[in-house]
Amino acid sequence: MPTSTTSPLWQATAQTFEELALLFPDATLTERQARAPLALTAIVEFTGPMRGRLVLRVSAEVLPSAAANMLGEDDAQHAPLQRDAVGELANVICGNVLPAVAGAEAVFLLSAPRLETGDVVPVREADRAMAQHAAVEVGVEDGRAVVDLWIVEGADALLVPLAA
Amino acid sequence: MSALAVALDRTVPAGRLRERKVGVADLVVSNDPAERIITYALGSCLGVTVHDPVAGVAGMLHLMLPESSIDPVKGEHQPEMFVDTGIPLLFKTAYKMGAKKERMTVKVAGGAHAAANPDDDRFQIGKRNFVALRKIFWKNGVMIAASDVGGAQTSRTMWIDVGSGVVTLKIAGVESTL
Amino acid sequence: MALNVLVVDDSAVMRAMIVRTLKLSGVPLAEIHQAGNGEEGLRVVRDEWVDLVLLDVNMPVMNGEEMLTALRAEEATRALPVIVVSTESSDTRLARLTALDARIVHKPFPPETLRAMIAEVTGHSGIGGSHADEHDVAALASDSADF
Ligand SMILES: [Mg+2]
Fold first, then answer.
1. What is the ipTM of this complex?
2. Least CB-CB distance to A72: which of B131, B132, B139?
3. In Å, how far is B41's CA from the nearest CA of chain A?
4. Per-residue pLDDT, B55
């Protein structure tokens, strides 16, 4: 993957986790973090000079602390709030990485984040070959977060929508 | 009506100030307007000052690490070392001298990278400290009035004059008001 | 005079963060209304007195730029103060929003940045302490407070 995309994706991911979720993302994962299953997937589709999607997957360990930190609470076990929090993290990462990849002039339309329980495969096999891809994985609390960015150049090119 | 209306100017001329030194993992709170609370060589550590102009109380904490959970025994015996134990102690000590949270001004300095290039700073203690500080402040409804945080291998000396509440930083020999 | 504020964002967690910052900002507050998209936001503006709008851009149904355009097209809301709080980073779009007389706070934001913008736009500086007033702080602290 080109570092020109990976580096901005890393930057946007780290900054969003630090400043929005008040969680420090580790670049090097512990064994425990690396093993943590991904429990929730947030998908943001974007259109503009390029099309694509940003997919954020987090493990269960991340959910309560991310939501609680954002809300300024000790704990947040309420599942809808946890999903909302992860959706907003995906939206903010996506909004911050796109200008770094496409240039400050490019205007994108971002979809509302779609949340799927579990570890949803972020792109179809058929799209893999034609799309540019960057991925970042960080250790967060006792779990991890994985961010995938899929880009198809040109406004007409379209990733196949993921099955709902 | 405003709380600030009853704040007294307790400024003491710099020449007559007595220095009280804050060590590493240490805390000083004072209501003596003739004192200057000072800490030296903040690197990845954070210096946190509080000041209540009405009570005439000022304090400073020099903390080292984000979470006491990495060493609970130390957390108990030396709470000043960690964000999650030192910050509550700083505020509570100031409350005992009459300070009130809603009147307190909070300033922060330090949290530098340990390497010349931030990417070479493997443990990122400075950044971790500041993220942990933001978390505990947000949870407790505390806003930072001014901060000077980060930088590559920046060494900061920080002091607060108890009488005036003015916070000063000295970096590479140059003084500035925070 | 206490302000009536409308917070428009499709994320409930983000709305809660903005409301919390408002309460900590030192600005005297009356009602705080919330809406999950631009269309709901316009309905609130039509039905209620609103002094300040905090507005997201990326939202379903009607986005923030569309809502802002609709506000500026109406005589009654042409001058309504609007702070766009969004992840939007495109210079082109930020220029369009600024041309519609909105101020911008970029997500992710430290609460101090949003507070400073609220103070600037409303003319109330929340200076002095960390907070607005004792009552709000006590209410915020609830049972999760450490100090
Ligand atoms: Mg949104």
1. 0.90
2. B139
3. 24
4. 96
